[in-house]
Amino acid sequence: MTAVPVFLYHSVSTDPPSWIAPFTVGPRVFAEQLETMVDSGLRLVPLRMLVEAQRGGPPLPARSAVLTFDDGFADFHSTVLPLLVRLGLPATLYVTTGALRGRGPADDVFPPESRMLGWRQLVGLDEYGVEVGGHTRTHPQLDTLSARRVWDEVAGCGRELEDFLGRRVTSFAYPHGYSSPAVREQVRAAGWTSATAVRDAFSSAGDDPLRIARLMVRADTDRDRFRQWTLGATAPVAPFPEGPRTKGWRAYRRMRARLNVPYKAVS
């Protein structure tokens, strides 16, 4: 399988709150990473092109890559978007609807010092090549919830976005990258046609469109590792089955949830 890097970013900021700092990239580093992608010969394509190829549609151009951003931090609009527009790069932005500002009090999703996008800032992003996708309503670990709560998070997020934007929204991302076969079935039933995980791996045309592998770019992702990713090296290529460690980690988190002492995931 040809490796397709699907890059996952969160915040791009010089002064992030401490809770998201390990997953934050500075604006200068982010600009350098975009330049590294372009200089390496990668062709940044919309997520839908990867999904179409995974579903048997047209093959991807050689050396394709995809940009994604999770949660909906305010710096996407102020810092990320101008750079994407300047370079003509498409991206997918997955927003946690309960954390967005501007439609009544925001839910207590992220710590109070978090700076999140407003609903109105989602309007018109498609004109700049940015697809808006869903990231649940309150950012839970979906694979530890009851079926009813999963449906509320997955389907409810989609309804809220479609009611506001006035168009269909089809791309979803699992909070913390966590899913399970049962969760993925609910995502499919809710009408999402793709869903991204993490997996710290390359995606491919053969990857599962409801569990697309991504490479998370963190504060400690150094230049050499990032450059290797742009060359298709130093990470496995999906699809590959869940290993015992992943299954055991899910069982541990479910046990803690049942005991009402849930594991506090960060990203």
TrEMBL record:
BP GO terms, sorted: carbohydrate metabolic process
Record localization: Secreted
GO CC terms in record: extracellular region
CDD domains in the cross-refs: CE4_NodB_like_5s_6s
Principal place of residence: secreted
Keywords: Signal
Superkingdom of origin organism: Bacteria
GO MF term list: hydrolase activity, acting on carbon-nitrogen (but not peptide) bonds
Domain NodB homology positions: 63-267
Name of the protein: NodB homology domain-containing protein
